[in-house]
Every structure is written in C-alpha cells, then in structure tokens.
Amino acid sequence: MSTVTAPAGPTVHPAGDNLLEITDLVKHFPIKSGSLLGRTVGQVRAVDGVTLSVRRGRTLGLVGESGCGKSTLARVVTALQPATSGSIKLNGTELTTLRSGQMRGLRRQVQMVFQDPYGSLNPRRRVGSILGEPYAIHDGPKGKDRQQAVQQLLERVGLSSDHYNRFPTEFSGGQRQRLGIARALALRPELVVCDEPVSALDVSIQAQVLNLLEDLQDEFGLTYLFIAHDLSVVRHVSDEVAVMYLGKIVERGPVESLYSRPRHPYTNALLSAVPDPSAAAQRGTSTRIVLTGDVPSPAAPPSGCRFHTRCPKAQDLCSQEEPLLRPTPEDPEHVFACHYPVAAGEPLSIGTWSESAQAAVPRRAPSPARTSITKNREGSA
Amino acid sequence: MPLFEVQDLRVTFHTDDGDVRAVQGMSFSLDRGETLGIVGESGSGKSVSTQTVVGLVNGAEVSGSAVFDGVDLLQASEKTMRGLRGESISMIFQDPLTSLHPLYKVGDQIAEAVKAHRKISRSDARARAVQLLRDVGIPNPEGRAREYPHKFSGGMRQRAMIAMALALEPKMLIADEPTTALDVTVQAQILDLIERLRTEHQTAVILITHDMGVVAEVADKVVVMYAGRPVEVADTRSLFTEPHHPYTQGLLRSIPAFAARLDKLEAIPGAPPSLMVEQTGCPFAPRCPHVVTACTTSVPPLEPAGSAPGHLSACIRSRHAVGVDATDGSAGQSAPSGESTSWKGSASV
What we know:
heterodimer; A: Rossmann fold; eight-stranded mixed beta sheet; four-stranded antiparallel beta sheet; 12 strands; about 30% helix; B: alpha/beta; 12 helices; disordered C terminus
C-alpha cells in the first residue's frame, strides 16, 4: 500500500502548485436500525462526490448552510474521519490509503483550528502543556527548549510568554482562539483547516483573529481551507470560494468572480440573504431573495439537482437530471452546476422569487421511480 | 407619548467577588410600529437591560424607570407583570431549542400561551395555534402542531417561538438575538417575518443583536452599548453614514462586509473592560485611538452629536463641533486617515 505513494512524488505532480487535491470525495455515515443486529438501513450522504483543489499559500473558502457537509469535509481532509471513497492528495501523497504509522508524519503537515474556543482546549491543563503537546507527540524539542518554543509561539500569536503557566479559563474567547491557532502552528504545518474559526467571537475580536490568520499566512506560507457560514468573512480571507449544498459543490470560483457574478441560484440566494450594513443608507431598496423551507435531509437528498426543491428557477429537468459542474464562459476557473443558471444582470425581484419558491415548499422525498430515472439518466449521460 | 420609555436604568449584581455593574445608565424610547436595534458585544449589557425591564432578572439591584403604556415595569407587582408578559410584551430568545419545552407538543405550547390570558376553549386555543403556525410560514401546520420540538429544524423552532410570541398580538416584541443561531437564508426568513409583523400589527420591536448588518436592514433607530453603557444613539441611517463614537466607528470598520475592499480589517485592539471595576472615565478610553487625558477623568454623558437631530454620542469629542482638536493625544494613530478610506462622506472626524 505504501508503494502507492512512491510514483506520485511531488516532482511528478502534474499541477505543481496545488497543495491539496480532493477528487470525488465521498463520506457516507450509515444509519443503523435500532435492533441488536444493527443492520444498515440507509446512508447519510454528508459529502457526496466533492472535487476541490487548494493552491499552495492560498486560501480556499468553503461556505454553505448548516448540514451541508462542510465540517465533515474538514474532518475527512484532516483524517479525523476515514473517507468512504475518493482521493485526497496532499503534496501528491494519497492520504486515504495511508496506514496509521505513515499518517502520523502527515499529521504534522495538516493541522486544524476549531470553532469552539471553549470546547477545544482542555480546561485542566496549563497553556504550556496544551501547546507543548504537539512537540511531545511528534518528537519536537524537549524540556527547556520546548518551553522556549511554546513561549515564542505565544508571542507570535499576540499573547505573552508569561501566559505559559495559565489555565485556559483565564483567557477570553479571542485569546483562546489565539491559543488554538498557536497549537495548530506548533509543528509548522503546510495546510491549516480552519473550521468556523471566528464565528464564536465578537466582531471587534473577530477582526483581530482574521488579521492574525492573514499575517501568519504571509509569514509561514500557510495554505488555508477556510470553512465558514459568514459570507463576508469568507470573501475577506479567501482567494477562491466553493459553495456547498447537501454534500455537493454547486459553485466554485475566484472570489471576485463568484461574488460579483454568481451563476447558481443557491449562491445568489445565499449572497442576497446576508444583511448588508451599507443597506442602511438605501433602506427598502435591497432585493433579498428569501428561500422558503429548509435544507432537505442528506439521508434522502432530492433527485436530480439537490437544490430543486427550494429553487425558484426549477423546472422538470432539474428534478430528473443532476447538473454537472461546468465553467462559465468568462472565466474557466469559475464553475457551477445548474441547468438554468442566473444570467449576468438577470433581475431578481423578491416577488417572483418567493412566489415561485412557495410552490416548492413541501419537501418531497424522492419517490423510488424518480430515483431510478435519475440513475438511468446519469448512466446515459 | 412613546409606547415604551426607559430612563437611566441601572442593574448591579452583588456577587461574592464584588459588584458586577451590568447596566449603567441605559435610556431609550420606542413608539408603536417602530424597531429599535440594541447592538453591542458580549457582556455589553444589551440582554440584561431588556430582561430586567420585563422582570426576568432576579437578585439584582435595579434603579431607574421603564414606563410601558403608562406603567412603570420596574415598580409593578409580579401579578401586573404576569398580565403584561405575553399579553402586551412578548420575548423571543436566541436559542430556540432550549426555549421550547422538549416534552410538550409544539401546538400545545402555543395554545397554552393563549389559554393563560384568554377565556377560550381548548379546541379553539388549539385551532389558534395551528393558525399561528400557518401565519409564520410553517408548512403543514396541522401536522406540525402535533409534533415535539426535536422534530423541528432550528429555523422552524424559531418560527414556532415567534408564533407563540405573537399569539396574543402584543404591543411590543423583544427579540434577543433571534437569528444568531440560524443560517443566513433562514435568518432572512425570520427578519422578513418580524418586519411583516411591524407593518401589519404596528408592533414595536426591540431587536437585540451583535450583527450590524441585521440592524442596518431592519432597525429604525439604534442604541450602541459598550461595557453596560449606551455610547451612541441615532437613527439607523445617521448611525451608519455618520458614526460618531470611536467605538461605533471601530465596530463598523472591523466588519468584513464593509472592509471587503480594504487590505486589512481595522481591528479594535484590546478587549472590553471588566464590569467589576468601577469606571471613572470613558469605558472605551483604553482601546480608543483618539484618547486624551480628559477621557479618563469623568464618564462622558450622551450628548447631541453630528448633524441629524436625536443623534447622541457619549464621547467628549461631541462637545467640539469638529473633533480633530481632541485627537492631539493620539500619538501617531492612523485612525483618522483610515476612516477616509472606508467611509465615504463621513468626514465628521
């Protein structure tokens, strides 16, 4: 199994500047019946065929509503959860087939910053011990050297080396998130997966942490996979953005192109739903697209395009055939998966959108017949 | 006469470690059909001040007045308060899961709110609950009324809470971070619903939030709170186009939506002060780029600032028509120049 990695060394790597390449990644969680036998009665299709790449030293933002699978994707990429199928390549090395011994070396290169600065630090251990642990696990410096390394880390993330002997409870939310970042940086990783790193923080503190993440990226050449539900935060930090809906990427592209010319109706709705502070100046003129209903269950995703149950532009084809990602004419880097994309400059009046969306409110579980149609179509396509 | 007027509200909690001055001099007024936004960071006292006025805070030392429709809520008996809560004043809270009872069906919980205040038969109350669920846009309301809260998604729970809050068509709705736990798409639905209420029923709304974007979209006027004090009061447009208080300015500048075209967010350095320490000067002085010695000697009161009438700011610079002369102590801070890049037409500083 280890030989798999050998031929695909960094030098042979085709797209040399991609640090992370995810191809057709699938993560399903089995739904067990309640009986003793625990038969699998279904699958929660949390991540269902995701293909993404992140350039070295850049930031890929991943956005989507809760339950769209963005955090599951983060956990599979950091190998906290095994993938069901698909491939994850870091520097050309396939991660999904690595044995645990080899995995350890790779974990140095991939680190994670978590959302909850309260839950992700052990309250019974001192800062020195929390930040020293990566060194302990990965044969880093010992004794006095380790203490010095940790203190340098503390200073680098804007804390004081005197904080070495404190407990996490003595820190505020923003300071704790700095500790989480320091821990992720201890081993000088290449890829840092940030899962909602600022959503638990107040805005003024949020800005401090975002600035810190940017400084660290410049200083250490870090690559970020940045997951957030806050679209304005993602816009601020990302070079490229991917929009996820029910386990699939529906649109992906360079940040400016995606934000200024979103093609997928879901991206449009998501962007228009963000309350805009500058709206205060022209109150009443904003055109918000209000999506009705909730995200359907990933255990029984709708047939065809998964967004069709909430999509105001949905037509018959949408429930039958799954749209594939295709590039926009203006920018081949900007791809979207929609049969009836939103044209540039298409007026999106709130009335028409919510009216037609109203018709699609009842969340229809796809009937077996429908599902089979989809399969046939997919097969023939 | 305004529907609701709060004057110099002070709330202090006596704890073993010392006094926590959670709210120190909160004042605002609200008319029918008006939406007031209260913004501030965690611990700024925005939730405590509203919970105090509706009598949900126990064991605190409270002073000031909060007159609702001619009744001072702070002096009112528990019996009067019980009559007002639900009937005239409703609240919705941030966390819709813990605000609904997990062991009662959603429809029954809404019906109970109706039955507590109206002489109405059980079946009528239940029918009213179904109607309310339909009003807030829950599909299949008959079926959903018979379900338990755990079967509802976050957005639907919050809608059920709103249905309950609306059951008796209150004159005032206090919404404490009603959309913070929700996705943006669902947030948009809830904000639309609250907006509809205000236009259809002339409900006065107090919206507590930390999200400046939410405030900008739905509020008529805004109170910005910092460390237990209101630091700026203004109508929404004036607040966003001519923010006066350095804290408001900093808050706006640290929002990525605003600063999208800026290279770097202008974070406010430091953290809010402890509420255990008595403030002898402006609470924002330690983090303020324009701080001068006078800032630390007395707490600045809310005073008229800017061009719009009713725009108040608690900053000593409001005494000067143009505050530039007050920034002499800022020692090379680049804030004024930064302002010109992020704020078009806000050259008030």
